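Researcher: Next sequence.
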Amino acid sequence: MVKGIGGTTKSIQSSVSVKLFSRFDLSVCFNMDSLVVDKVTERLPTVSVDISSLINFNNLSLADDAYAVPGDIDLLIGASIFPHLLLSRKVQGQSDCLSPLALETVLGYVIVGSAPALVDCHASVSYCCATDPLDAAVRKFWQIEEVNAPKLLSPDDKACEDIYNSTTTRDADGRYVVALPFKGDVFSLGDSFKKSKNRFLCLERKMQASPALKEAYDNVISEYLNKGFISPAPIDTEETRNLPSYTIPHHGIIREDKLTSKLRIVLDGSSKSSSQISLNDILYNGQNLQGNLFHIIVNFRLYRIALSADIRQMFLCIGVRPCDRRFQRILYRFSPQEPLKVYEFNRVCFGLKSSPFHALRTIKQLILDEGASYPRAQQTVNTVGCHHTVGVFEA
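Model: Next structure:
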């Protein structure tokens, strides 16, 4: 293997011994061991040389009389021999200091340097027209002209939709109450309390080191309690003692850009229990109901003014049926001197993989149930999507 500029390599086909003679003096002879490759380099020079401006070389005994015409390179002489070829005399091609030189060697004069190229005065123009194959053109036509059709649900998405339709209710206040869409056996969940306790104790030490984080966390938990988002977990009875449950580790994310609550509590529904199964492992994702991002961006180009809005505490506006709340338990206490308390989320919480589906599917259900009373809201959600509403107005 021979390596060259930039790490390029050439495979060696064989080796050969070469005896090199001068065409002017046969007594000048060099022995070389050479490697054989399929190609030394491209034809050199790359373009024809304009010899009319190199008249000083006309009477010199050149090692290569055809130096001005591109030709194949048959042999590359190594640095071990080249110094022994050079003699003392050199001839300048032109008065210009940058013109090529003719260096005298034992093989004859060799031309070295930047030589004037012979430019072809004839210009050629080529025209190429490429067309798509017929099958590609037909395929593109059907893609462009295809009528939008509702996407077919996967078996998992259909099962999740069926669970939603068969279990979702509304309470006395009109709030939607949903069920966790289980796809696996809830009894496959192992013990999650121990890991959740260790994670909370770590969080508690972090809060003790940061009074601002502690205050923000306490305020959010207090708000959740006051608004009924969470409540103390009921004491297990004889009937519920052997039922599976899941205690979810949680942490806080500080959002300095928020004007109101700067802390969001995120639940880790993917934390493995002692059986190496997490709550998210046995939940359906549900269909992706987020709005088409391209349509949302295009709406900004319709008019001069655009308004963007979202729903505050969107997930927490949706209730979870009581029998599923035991799978949404968290640990918390307001002081290290207090015993750890177990709370249950009464609402859809942030951190379960089914929560985005519940939030967007419930808005869709709200439009189906109440859209006739709010036609403009119905039109906006159906047009833009319900994940992020953008309204555009003409000024």
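Model: The radius of gyration is 41 Å. The chain has two domains: 2-112, 155-393.
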